[in-house]
User: Fold this.
Amino acid sequence: MRCAVIGGGAWGSALAHLLGHGGHDVWLWAREPDVVEHVNLTHANPRFLPGAVLDPAVRATSSLAAAVGGAELVIYVAPSHVLRAVVRSTAEFLDAGALAVVATKGIERGTLALMTDVVREELPGHAVVALSGPSFALEVARGMPTAVVAASDDLAHAEVVQRALSSPVFRVYTNDDVTGVEIGGALKNVMAVATGIAEGVGLGLNSRAALITRGLAEMTRLGIALGARPDTFAGLAGMGDLVLTCTGALSRNRAVGVQVGRGEPLDAVLAATESVAEGVTTTDSARALAQRERVDMPIVMAIGRILFEQQAPRDALADLMGRDLRPERDA
Assistant:
């Protein structure tokens, strides 16, 4: 297939590598000139994906027209806060039958739209598929076995993505619960910030396990309120991605949380981070979404107070432990 990957960060580079290794004709669009140069000359992206060698079939460009023109499959991996603008910029160059895949995880600030909804609004008439699951980019680029989910209301569109990306080391499952897959992929980043903060404060593994488990309960509650199926959160885009991001050393969101938990100012932490930590933006959006849907999400609210209202991490975590006692399962 003729494919395009829009976003030259770590995950975009890894997905382009997968497509190129699978025999597809793939263009990687990157905003950064040094990324384009390195990919084309050295088959590497040392700025965002150091230590990985990309398939020689991957070609990079800074031209959106060159990247998406004639593409049958277009994967969007731009950060959530610029996704709408990037997608809008590609619209005039897309072929009418191009399938749009959304690999960005997040909730748009202000509109509170899921990423697939953002793309649908900007690309009316195009089929849209969500791609999510536990997948550190560096491990994918190095060929370590990975499993993810392609979600669409139309199974045939999800199967196109499944066939395009699947390989002996990268397994793609299909799912028709787009909302559940998206909510799982977005909110696991918030929970990763939470577990990082707990680690930075000096709390132990018991605390981490509690945050992961109760975090999953919050994700599921919000998902159900938005029409998702509860079983989706027991799968790859829910529990799978949550555990990876909350415990893995390669997690950007967890790393940001650790630094905040140690007392470093959020602005300074983000300024020193080359890649985007989506959990910070998503925390703000998730708070607003929970309030709109009247869903109880105490962990999300606590992380919001730490990140945006300067509450001391230890005080916020103490507030969580001091909440009224309740049953584990909602009635």
